[in-house]
């Protein structure tokens, strides 16, 4: 498997509780390199577009309100098999189902307030990175 890039968000529940460093420690311990990172306040439009695939789901409104409720940290992670590896480090969407030692097991508050986002495939990773970062921002 080649070197890949994936897109990550440290979500409002985690930035609010000062967990950015603790989450970054787990990312780096897994061998993923943080090659771009910025703290932003997501706009409603950005949140609605980013989660557009979930527009018809009953939790969409709640999800958008949550994502704009506090600053987030958007990141690009690089490494061997980075997309699947980060999904493993994150753990399952629902923290009650997440494996021990994962970010969501250790930090997530609920299925909605679950501390991190990670891309699920190469196509979405490329789209999500391009939505928040210019090519020159990525320092591999
Ligand atoms: P993941 O973030 O693990 O890729 P997803 O893409 O299915 O999960 O959903 C995106 C986000 O939407 C998820 O991180 C939290 C929220 N979400 C998903 N299912 C939910 C539910 N049943 N209730 C509340 N929020 C939910
Ligand atoms: Mg997803």
TrEMBL record:
Its EC number is 2.7.4.6. The keyword Kinase applies. InterPro entries: NDK-like_dom, NDK-like_dom_sf, Nucleoside_diP_kinase, Nucleoside_diP_kinase_AS. Residues 3-140 form the Nucleoside diphosphate kinase-like domain. Its cofactor is Mg(2+). The keyword Magnesium applies. Pfam families: NDK. It is an enzyme of class 2 (transferase). Major role in the synthesis of nucleoside triphosphates other than ATP. The ATP gamma phosphate is transferred to the NDP beta phosphate via a ping-pong mechanism, using a phosphorylated active-site intermediate. PANTHER family: NUCLEOSIDE DIPHOSPHATE KINASE (PTHR46161), NUCLEOSIDE DIPHOSPHATE KINASE DDB_G0292928-RELATED (PTHR46161:SF3). Homotetramer. This is Nucleoside diphosphate kinase.
């Amino acid at each position: 498997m080649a070197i890949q890039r994936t897109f990550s968000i440290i979500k409002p529940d985690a930035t609010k509780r000062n967990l950015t460093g603790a989450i970054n420690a787990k990312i780096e311990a897994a061998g993923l390199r943080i090659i771009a990172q910025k703290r932003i306040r997501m706009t409603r439009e950005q949140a609605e577009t980013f989660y557009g695939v979930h527009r018809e789901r009953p939790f969409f409104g709640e999800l958008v309100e949550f994502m704009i409720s506090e600053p987030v940290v958007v990141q690009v992670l690089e490494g061997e098999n980075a997309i699947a590896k980060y999904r493993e480090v994150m753990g399952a969407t629902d923290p009650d189902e997440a494996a021990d030692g994962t970010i969501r097991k250790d930090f997530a508050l609920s299925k909605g307030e679950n501390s991190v986002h990670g891309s699920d495939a190469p196509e979405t990773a490329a789209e999500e990175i391009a939505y928040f970062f210019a090519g020159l921002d990525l320092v591999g």
